[in-house]
Amino acid sequence: MSVLSADDRSQVNELLSTLEETVTVHVFTEDDCQYCEETLDLYEDVEGESDDIVIETHDMNDPLAEELGATKYDGAPVTVITRDGVTGVRYFGIPSGQEFSAFLQGLIAVAQGPGATELPDEVREKVQNIDQPVNIKVFVTPTCPHCPQAVQVAHQMAIENEGITADGIESQEFMELSQEYGVRGVPQINVNDDGQFTGGLPPEQFVDEVLSALE
């Protein structure tokens, strides 16, 4: 069942026409999942607009789910955008509303790969020099206008450094997790379960906040 309008599909087609590498989108689902079917319908629309997007659907019991970090939190759908060694770009929940643009930008960024994301050169160098495992959680809602910026920067960091994983988390779908991390406003960003900051910050400030949390 198509989710996107004809105009939306046309815009997606134009946006993804710049892709030069094939990107694989792994989607993990489970029974009694409220938004899994809608997510798959959305991705089917996207796949239909680009020969360079491959959607692969898996059950959450698939060993690949644990390998790609899809089982880290309790719930589905979970999406992991991959190409070559890039495996740290993840969404927990359906990337709808404002987050759909972040999902599309994630596809483009993963296709570009390390060294070619939109991070400024000085920011990219800081990210590439991080020498410890980092997990960035970005709590979002579909109506938050500042959330896509935060998700995109986090995902670009994960692309530039294989030691970084970045999770865009739909806070209303993952309510227990949001409560655990005391989410009061979005985007809320948590770094390695300790550091926390909020807002759709520009890349320079975002990365400095992450580095501060790692000290």
Automatic annotation (TrEMBL):
CDD domains: TRX_GRX_like. Keywords: Electron transport, Isomerase, Transport. GO terms for molecular function: isomerase activity. It comes from the Archaea. Residues 134-211 form the Thioredoxin-like fold domain. InterPro entries: GLR_AS (IPR011767), Thioredoxin-like_fold (IPR012336), Thioredoxin-like_sf (IPR036249), TON_0319-like (IPR011903). Gene3D superfamilies: 3.40.30.80. Belongs to the glutaredoxin family. PANTHER family: GLUTAREDOXIN-LIKE PROTEIN, GLUTAREDOXIN-RELATED. This is Thiol-disulfide isomerase or thioredoxin. The lineage of its organism: Archaea, Methanobacteriati, Methanobacteriota, Stenosarchaea group, Halobacteria.
